[in-house]
Write a structure and sequence with these properties.
With 197 residues, the protein is of the alpha+beta class. It contains four helices and twelve strands. The chain has a single domain, classed as Jelly Rolls. The strands form two sheets. The protein has an eight-stranded mixed beta sheet with strand order 1-10-7-12-5-4-3-2. Strands 6-11-8-9 form a four-stranded antiparallel beta sheet, with no helix packed on it. Strand 3 and strand 4 form a beta hairpin. The two termini are 20 Å apart.
Length: 197
């Protein structure tokens, strides 16, 4: 059974556009893995320069209705996943998780950018949902033990990949080394919901 990622659903729809919603977000750049959370509660992007990826901050405080849409979808998805007979450890993590809007983050990747190889230090897994132009990246995940120094992966780590589409929800083991490769010729900004488990 795949403990790296799993497609859970392909029916997510919202009436709002993430690009329009976030176009005025200020950007704060992080040189390290420190989370930047503005004390005034304002929504903003945090850009992780080393990995070329943007994460929204304080989204749940400002965009309550949008988060309710996401929470409603995740709750229904969780209920459907509980009826699965053959469940991976990843799926078990999701179905036993208490959903909370503070775990919702929007993720943005600029056209032509690759998200460099990394593993997440603040979470073990996530539900990633394609919002807009999500097909513009291919997610790569490596199995096996992380190589503690250097490149994170060694010759014994095998790569597995998937290409998300808008409306699809994947559960991803973010504790494993992973990256996102830009689809050649892509000129669109990629937006996904990433819900931390």
């Amino acid at each position: 059974m795949n403990e790296l990622f799993q497609l859970l659903d392909n029916s997510f729809q919202v009436s709002w556009d993430p690009e329009t919603l976030t176009k005025d977000f200020p950007v704060f750049t992080a040189e390290s893995y420190t989370i930047i959370q503005k004390s005034d509660g304002s929504a903003h992007w945090q850009y992780f320069k080393a990995h070329q990826i943007f994460f929204s901050r304080n989204f749940h405080l400002i965009y309550v209705k949008e988060c309710q849409d996401i929470m409603s979808y995740l709750s229904g998805l969780q209920t459907r996943c509980r009826s699965e007979a053959d469940r991976s450890k990843l799926l078990e993590t999701f179905i036993h998780h208490d959903l909370h809007p503070t775990n919702i983050t929007l993720v943005k990747v600029d056209p032509g950018s690759n998200v460099n190889l990394h593993y997440d230090r603040s979470r073990k897994s996530s539900i990633n949902i394609g919002l807009k132009n999500s097909h513009a990246g291919i997610t790569n995940v490596w199995d096996g033990e992380k190589v503690p120094e250097g490149d994170l992966i060694g010759p014994d780590n095998k790569k597995y990949s998937y290409q998300m589409r808008d409306g699809e929800a994947y559960i991803l083991n973010t504790d494993q080394p992973h990256s996102v490769s830009c689809v050649p010729g892509n000129t669109s900004t990629r937006y996904i919901v990433s819900y931390s488990l």
